[in-house]
Design a protein that fits this description.
The protein is built from 11 helices and 12 strands. The protein is an alpha/beta fold.
Length: 378
């Protein structure tokens, strides 16, 4: 009975609330999402104007402001990197340092980057002698960045013309704002918008500082990366402490470092969210999120993320901690119910069993603490 109260009941209760939340969001189409098609690079590419809460963005270029290091990790994205780099060099915010690190590509991507580097002196181009993987390549980019503001852009993604300007505007709201991010849409290989991200963050007014702990707790309670992939996320370089020293970053592993970095940065201050669409994130068979076992690896990562976050002061409320660990167990069940995920789980079976035991132990401990607090209260 005690096990039911502390572990099973929270999982079932929170699972029901998750299902109700999904039903409420079903069919919710953002009125400000850009349902448009991006023409491939070299065929008259035109990047659509941003749609702001107050109307169409101004095309005026901004020539002053802090230097922004735009970091582009490149690996075998020949069909997409041209569109990506064109969207960066065309930004209305001009004080940019564009750092590209080619991770030993073999498809001609480096040649495209060289063409852009020859015509724009803001581009700094490097190439690894061997493929080091996404995590090490991102660390290399951070080492090369010299701007006080940093943002990553996937070589297969596309920015809107005012994306950097809007992200910098968010960081300039206050000195303690350490992270600025905006809404993104998903596009396919042909550039067609296939989905708009759920409006989970629209509870906050656009460009209004959000307490980092509050935002982080919301993400952790549902085991959801509300901030999203690094594209169209800008942060103060000083807020990312020891990026290499994170759980899951041991040699031979590729951690879910974007979520870990967001949590680390949010622990240092506030964040700002821009409701308008600032970027298109591309989904295609060769993207890392679509690879076999990617969802299972993310499951393994979330266990470390929750523990790491608690050590940084997140989930201080026992009710939040209970919901987070229950959400993690629900996520594990839902993920392993998928056929592709089960096939990929064989490689991570031992880690997942250990993660599940750890989650149950954490959930049981929180459940007991809350029960004793209730019994002992006057």
């Amino acid at each position: 009975m005690r096990l039911f109260r502390s572990v099973v009941r929270p999982v079932v209760t929170i699972g029901i609330s998750h299902r109700r939340a999904r039903r409420r969001q079903a069919g919710d189409h953002r009125p400000d999402a850009l349902h448009t098609q991006i023409v491939p690079h070299g065929e008259g590419t035109q990047h659509p104007a941003n749609t702001h809460d107050g109307g169409t963005s101004s095309p005026t270029a901004r020539e002053d402001g802090p230097l922004v290091s735009v970091l582009v990790p490149s690996w075998n994205f020949l069909n997409f990197i041209g569109d990506c780099l064109e969207s960066i060099v065309s930004q209305s915010y001009r004080p940019l340092e564009i750092v590209i690190v080619d991770d030993a590509t073999s498809d001609g991507s480096y040649g495209v980057a060289e063409e852009f580097s020859a015509r724009d002196d803001r581009i700094v181009l490097h190439r690894n002698d061997r493929n080091v993987g996404a995590f090490e390549n991102s660390l290399r980019l951070l080492e090369l960045a010299s701007g006080p503001i940093v943002m990553f852009v996937g070589a297969d993604d596309v920015l809107h013309r005012d994306a950097v300007a809007r992200l910098v505007e968010g960081l300039e709201q206050a000195p303690d704002v350490v992270l600025s991010f905006g809404h993104f849409d998903l596009i396919g290989e042909d550039g067609q918008v296939i989905d708009g991200r759920a409006a989970a963050l629209d509870r906050w007014p656009s460009l209004t500082p959000i307490p980092g702990i509050e935002l982080g707790d919301g993400m952790l309670r549902r085991c959801r990366n509300w901030i999203g992939s690094p594209t169209a996320v800008a942060f103060r370089a000083s807020a990312l402490k020891d990026p290499r020293q994170l759980p899951g970053s041991e040699p031979g592993r590729q951690p879910s470092f974007d979520v870990l970095w967001w949590i680390r940065i949010l622990s240092e201050g506030r964040a700002v969210y821009a409701r308008e669409t600032l970027s298109h994130r591309r989904e295609h068979p060769s993207s890392t999120t679509q690879s076999l076992g990617a969802l299972v690896k993310l499951l393994d990562a979330w266990c470390g993320i929750l523990r790491h976050a608690q050590a940084l002061g997140f989930l201080a409320d026992p009710a939040d901690a209970q919901e987070a660990w229950a959400s993690y167990l629900i996520l594990m069940c839902l993920t392993l119910a998928q056929r592709d995920a089960r096939r990929g789980a064989m490689r991570f079976a031992r880690a997942l069993v250990s993660d599940a035991r750890a989650a149950c132990k954490e959930l049981d401990a929180v459940g007991r603490a809350r029960t004793y607090a209730y019994v002992d209260s006057p």
